[in-house]
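Page 42, continued from yesterday. The earlier attempt failed because a stray header line got pasted into the input along with the sequence. Redoing it now with the clean sequence only.
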Amino acid sequence: MAKTYKLNPLDAAWLMVESTDTPMHVGSLTIFSLPKNASPDFLRDTVASLRQHRNFAPPFNLKLVSPKLKGVLPAWIEDHKIDLDYHFRHSALPAPGGERELGVLISRLHSHPLDFNRPLWECHLIEGLENNRFALYVKMHHSQVDGVGGMKMLERMLSSDPEATDRLPPWAVGRGGGSARPRAVKAPLAERLKSLALAQAETLPGVIKALGEVVSETFNQTDPAHAAPFVAPKSILNRKIGGQRRFATQYYELERIRRIAKAAEVTVNDVFLELCSGALRRYLDEIQALPNAPLTAGVPVSVRPADDGDSGNAISFIIANLNTHLADPLKRLKAIQESTNIAKDKLQALPKAGINNYTMVFMAPYILSLLTGLGGRTRPMFNVTISNVPGPREHLYFNGARLEQMYPISLLSHGQALNITVVSYAGQFNVGFTGCRDTLPHMQRLATYMAESLEELERAVEKQQHKRRKVV
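This time it went through. Structure tokens are written below.
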């Protein structure tokens, strides 16, 4: 009899809120350059070689026991009849194969929901990029992977050795070590629920205290630096969305971001939030949709141990004030730093064993709004999701092809029409913008405005340093 595997509550939540307009898959776009002296048949031979690998590692070999009951105690079961020709697809861009053509294709591919009767993933090899490059687009349901887990899987697929030719496709690599496999369901449901309740009971006092503080701050907000849930202003970012997506990219040298962070005595993530804030402020003001009150951001925070090889969700959330009402970039940056410090201090005060409980209860109103159809109709919990995922620090290769850039592609939901996620890689700072096609006209401008926000912030920091040197 085939084994079945249970989902933790956070993983299951992503299945519960799946809909036609809000598919809950995430993706990655990796761009490679062909090896030097590659034969004209390199990509054809690569595709043929990948199709030979029909051993599927978790989670690529798992499908839902019952797709119709995905919102009620879902469980995985191993699929021993996977149709690789369905999951792995070979595409080509129309000439000239530039960033625009690639963005249009990725937007279209990311708009299509996954087939819940099969394992929840797809892999697309895309040739025809200019400058002798090709791309790999992989998408997987968020119930099986989060950003950090996905990055770990990608790293296992690649090599730091440009001469290595033994690299396997993602579906043959999977999560990695056997300890990362999901746990088999053995005990009856009643016993499982009882065991879960007992395991979490000892963390309950700390969780209740933390949640009580959140509720109190929401109704009695006295500190303008703190961003409480459901105090975000209404904006076009927080309406009902459709199922079609837009995708845009931007990348910078990581050292530019680090120089600003060091000079301003803030974190790299604070700088990233300020760049998002500056870009959003200009974009919304341009279309006459900038709220008077500052926007807030939901910021996923990884709580995964460094030695955890699993790919499932191990995240919590903080809410940061983006201070979009402030025109001065340095003042915005310092105000953002104050807000994130307050939020992180509250999360770190929780016992580690209670973070999952806290996250589920904290996000319950958001999930409930999606299940009841209220998402996009009521005041948002926060205005935009902004994530920072650490990636590999060294250049990586796939059978001799060098990985040039990697971009994250995220999910959207009713009331959340935009997601901005950055991945660091080999000294790069690669930003992916995922937006609702119907909600955000000319979304590509956000990428342009972020680049200009970076230049503006650099000038402001340099000016401040110059003043300090004069004083000394």
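Notes: Residues 177-181, 192-204, 304-309 have pLDDT under 50 and may be disordered.
Reminder to self: strip header lines before submitting.
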